[in-house]
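Give me the fold.
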Amino acid sequence: MKVTAAHGNNLKYLSLVTLTLQNAILGLSMRYGRTRPGDLFLSSTAVVMAELVKLATSLVLVYLEEGKHFGRLRAALHQTIVKQPLDTLKICVPSMLYIIQNNLLYVSASHLDAATYQVTYQLKILTTAVFAVLILRRRLLPTQWAALVLLVVGVASVQLAQTGEDSGTAATRQQSMPAGDGTEQNRLLGFSAALGACFLSGLAGIYFEKMLKGADISIWMRNIQLSLLSLPFGLLTCAVNDGAQLAARGFFFGYDAFVVYLVVLQAVGGLIVAVVVKYADNILKGFATSLAIIISCVASIYLFDFSLSLQFTVGAGLVIGSIFLYGYDPAAAKGAKPGVRPSAKALAEAEERLLAEKV
């Protein structure tokens, strides 16, 4: 019994570290990749490559699930994708939304410092909650509505701290280094892109969660479906947004070891989180997100000449507080009994929600 409890605690600590590092390092790496000197890679191609890596990784994992048998792998893919055309067609919706969302995140990372990006992107909690109420008819607790108000106030405080820069009261100073392609930093564009990404994250996540209800398909097979159907949308985005540059410079222009690392981090990191997140409760997820915000702020001070102000600190604190408040269930906390595990149905529903938040 003690061994089992110790093993469970170890998995929780592993989940905390993994979630924290994934949240913090990805944002910092995206910011650095978009502002470092030298040739700037096309973000649309990086999104496509991340989906390709995710697809390859998921195929390997399904191959292992099928007992390392290519025949079973082929049969499973045929049964899930080819023989269920309607289900596959439905997956096209979140696939397209995730592609647009990931492209918007690169735009946001190009124009917002890592700390502001990390705080602003927490608005996905608000959009997810709103779509959960509208689409899934889910009822929110009064504490959750209060948390959403705190979240909006906190993000607004962070953004207003930036707009006050010219009067000397800003949380951050305009960074002296331009974006990697030599263009000026446009905070309004970065904030708008982050808002768009939050909107799409909430819509795609809730839509996907609704699809998962009652579906007997493994998490890795779902990732194969998503990535496979995301590739055409990603290539179309490349052609529409960067067609001229692709023709002149090539698909892999600006790629080096760091860009390869960034692509792998974005692809594989999400899959790793999908594995460990089932061991994380709401409090632990709140700690992970809060630590990621703090790490992003501290790292930005040393890496990107980020200047922390009282207004930014208060705004970030409100966002962190809202994360914990949103995940707090007073009734569950009052009625919980030590040593009693949640029901199988509750665990299944939680896993469906976590899978829907894969990106």
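The chain has a mean pLDDT of 81.
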